[in-house]
Amino acid sequence: MSDRESQSSLSDIVCDGESGASGNDSSWSDHLSTPPGVPAFRPAFGLGNAHLQTLYGALRPASPTIPGTVQRKLRFADGDFAVLHDDKPNDWARGDHVALLMHGLSGCHQSGYMARIAAKLMAQNVRVFRMDHRGCGAGRMLARRPYHAGRIRDVEAAIRMLERLCPSSPISVAGFSLSGNLLLRYLGDDPNSLPLSLYRAVAVSPPIDLQHCCEALRDTRMGQRYDWYFARQLVTQISDTPQWHDELPLAQAKRPPRRLIEFDELYTAPASGFESAADYYATASAKDHIDKIRVHTSILVAEDDPLVSSTPWKGLTPPANITMCVTKHGGHLGFIGKSGIDADNRWMDWRVVDWLLN
After folding, report:
1. Do residues 99 and 356 make contact, with C-beta atoms less than 8 angstroms apart?
2. Structural domain boundaries enclosing 138
């Protein structure tokens, strides 16, 4: 979520008593729980509800100001650009650790979790690059084609740019929500061709089965509200930018899409060369590629995530190099925990930092 643009819209989403994602009729986290050495997640007082976790995380981002950020344009082979925001600690030297952070749907480098985790990493002398995907944040007017959950070559291009800027440095990558799927899809696509500089990967709340996750939003009243909100956000995001194309079905539609699957059918799929939303989802989903991942990877999933259904993880057996952390609570990119465990109550941030570096 874009913190600046989402405040008023998200405040209209009111929790109506639903506890979280549907379809979790039986627990599957007994054998995929908090890994050894990781403090268990306990929701902060009054934030046990999945929607409250989700909305608090978005509306109270606690986003720090990071001075000295340098914007670096990343040009792709098709002529579009993304923007990498380079945050370099004063004591960082060649060969020191580097991290790439990739935001979720409708987010940007200023999203709360992006800025908070960047600041925490910098405190450990890690050079951080916060990526604005095509058409997002500082890159809003720099692309004609949209970013989506399957643009694995964009991830590769970003890592290669970091290798040029930071030779000899180990590179860790974290993807949040939609970018979590993107990262896993990239890691499992052709594991033998991955850069040797890749050290660790972290995916938080990844929708590894895009079709299922979109369809699951219909099952609850709150899910339908999130669905409508994000569909509206995405239309606003591309309006009056080079990404708007009059020849695409979205421009001819009689009404704006009310669901993400409608937006992807009318815009994402045709703008990206897919036959349909279903074709896009089948191609971009990471679920069938996770068993091919060879990079040391940590994945954080909340069982009660109201936006990204945790059901697709049932029955999956990730390889030994993947560490699963499944929590009962946490919502979507929330994980606001009780005080006294970490230096602040942003439990997710500290786990991501630990996993990226160790």
Report:
1. yes
2. 3-9+49-209+286-357
Q: Is residue 82 part of a domain?
A: yes
Token pair for 18: 């639903």
Q: Which of 288, 284, 297 is nearest to 315 (CA)?
A: 288
pLDDT in tens, 25-46: 444 544 457 788 899 999 999 9
Q: What is the CATH number of the domain that holds 336?
A: 3.40.50.1820
Alpha carbon distance 237, 206 (integer Å): 22
Relative to beta strand 98-102, strand 127-132 is parallel
**Domain assignment present for 64:** yes
Gap between the Cα atoms of 2 and 103, Å rounded: 9
pLDDT tens per residue, range 143-172: 999 999 999 999 999 999 999 999 999 999
The pTM (predicted TM-score) of the whole model is 0.93
Using CA atoms, how far residue 291 sits from 35, 175, 178, 307, in Å, is 19, 18, 19, 24
Count of the separate structural domains present in the chain:
1
